[in-house]
């Protein structure tokens, strides 16, 4: 019997082992409380990240702010609600945002690289692996990748929704040791501290329960797209991949230095004991299922408990069509999704062979897969 190594559960243990981290900075932090990009804040964040790099850690920055920067350049007083105007502001602002980062990192001798992603880049297994390889190459060259959603082309169907979600997916993409989300509050509170003076900061979350979800709220500034609820969602994705998350204030000077000095700063979300493999993480969080397969209880048990592939004998129905290679949702007899997989057959072929035993399937099809 092989022993399973448990993940560290204390801040000291977690921070001691961090070699690769993802840091997410939101628009509310980068604005410095205004509706424009605040260069002094960008400089401060760059100084902290460059300091982590000098200590030998690999750093990836997920940064919002393109639309915010565009607003300042275009003289807009509030965030656009119209998608084409948002995209235009992002197109103007992305260059300005990267120039701001280059100027901020320059005095520290630190090179940065722009990486723009959409949900489609991570849904495709080939593009997912290409993005992973590119990021590893940049880290190997001691460059800090600055990642943002490609707001210029992103529409609702291909948007991540918020950069909290994107940062968690990037952390799983690169097998990060830690995800740090810098926001405009000190961490997760038991209620909104802006409205409730009795709200308490939660320093540690061992498991994301319904109570934890109830504590989380929405964005209060109107500048960002995510509130605490999206940060809790990001922490859940990271935790499932064995990655701890710290949510802390990016408005206070020295937050990152204090975190790595071992101080109890913000809220630490612990990872799960069992860590998903890379391919399963991609299926679970990065893909958007194109089809659905309903299976019987025997097939469900075989998939979950024994880790086996789905055979035609366990298929009950295909309520949503799909093609070969598509990601599909696996539903139980009650219509609840319990797993995802990649289809070796299209839905029409599955309908022809569903319910058949393996030998019967082999006799009817020359496309049998045993994995």
Q: Tell me the series of helices and strands, N- to C-terminal.
A: HEHHEHHEHHEHEEHHEHEHEHEEEHH
- Number of extended strands: 12
Using the coordinates above, name the CATH class of the largest domain: Alpha Beta
Radius of gyration: 22 Å
Major beta sheet, specifics? Answer: 8 strands, mixed
How far do the termini sit from each other?
25 Å
Mean pLDDT: 83
Instruction: Please give the share of residues in helix.
Output: 25-40%
Overall number of structural domains: 2
Helix count, per DSSP?
15
CATH architecture of the largest domain: 3-Layer(aba) Sandwich
The CATH topology of the largest domain: Carbamate kinase
Write the layout of secondary structure elements.
Elements: H1 11-16, E1 20-25, H2 27-30, H3 39-54, E2 58-63, H4 66-74, H5 83-105, E3 112-117, H6 119-123, H7 125-140, E4 144-149, H8 163-173, E5 178-183, E6 204-205, H9 210-215, H10 228-240, E7 245-249, H11 255-260, E8 267-269, H12 278-286, E9 291-295, H13 297-305, E10 315-320, E11 327-331, E12 337-342, H14 347-353, H15 358-364
Parallel strand pairs: 1-2, 1-5, 2-4, 3-4, 5-7, 6-8, 9-11
Antiparallel strand pairs: 7-8, 9-10, 11-12
Helix pairs in contact: 3-5, 4-5, 8-10
């Amino acid at each position: 019997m092989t022993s399973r190594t448990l993940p560290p559960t204390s801040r000291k243990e977690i921070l001691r082992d961090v070699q690769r981290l993802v840091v997410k900075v939101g628009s509310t932090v980068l604005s410095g409380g205004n509706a424009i990009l605040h260069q002094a804040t960008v400089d401060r964040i760059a100084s902290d990240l460059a300091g982590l790099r000098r200590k030998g850690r690999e750093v990836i920055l997920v940064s919002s702010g393109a639309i915010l920067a565009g607003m300042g350049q275009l003289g807009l007083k509030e965030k656009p609600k119209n998608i084409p105007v948002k995209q235009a502001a992002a197109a103007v602002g992305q260059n300005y945002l990267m120039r701001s980062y280059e100027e901020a990192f320059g005095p520290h001798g630190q090179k940065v690289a722009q990486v723009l992603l959409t949900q489609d880049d991570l849904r495709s297994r080939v593009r997912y692996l290409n993005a992973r390889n590119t990021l590893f190459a940049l880290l190997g060259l001691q460059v800090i990748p600055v990642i943002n959603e490609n707001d210029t082309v992103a529409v609702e169907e291909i948007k991540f929704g918020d950069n909290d979600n994107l940062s968690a997916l990037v952390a799983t993409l690169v097998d990060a040791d830690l995800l740090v989300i810098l926001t405009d509050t000190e961490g997760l509170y038991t209620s909104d501290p802006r409205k409730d003076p009795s709200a308490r900061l939660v320093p540690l979350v061992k498991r994301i329960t319904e109570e934890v979800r109830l504590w989380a709220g929405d964005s209060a500034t109107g500048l960002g797209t995510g509130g605490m609820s999206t940060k809790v969602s990001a922490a859940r994705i990271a935790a499932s991949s064995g990655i701890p998350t710290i949510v802390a204030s990016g408005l206070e000077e020295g937050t990152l230095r204090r975190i790595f000095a071992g101080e109890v700063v913000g809220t630490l979300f612990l990872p799960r004991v069992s860590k998903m493999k890379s391919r399963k993480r991609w299926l679970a969080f990065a893909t958007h299922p194109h089809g659905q397969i309903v299976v019987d209880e025997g097939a469900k048990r075989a998939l979950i408990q024994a880790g086996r592939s789905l055979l035609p004998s366990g298929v009950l129905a295909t309520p949503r069509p799909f093609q070969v290679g598509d990601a599909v949702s696996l539903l139980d007899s009650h219509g609840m999704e319990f797993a995802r997989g990649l289809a070796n057959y299209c839905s029409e072929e599955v309908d022809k062979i569903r319910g058949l035993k393996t030998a019967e399937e082999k006799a009817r099809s020359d496309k049998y897969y045993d994995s």
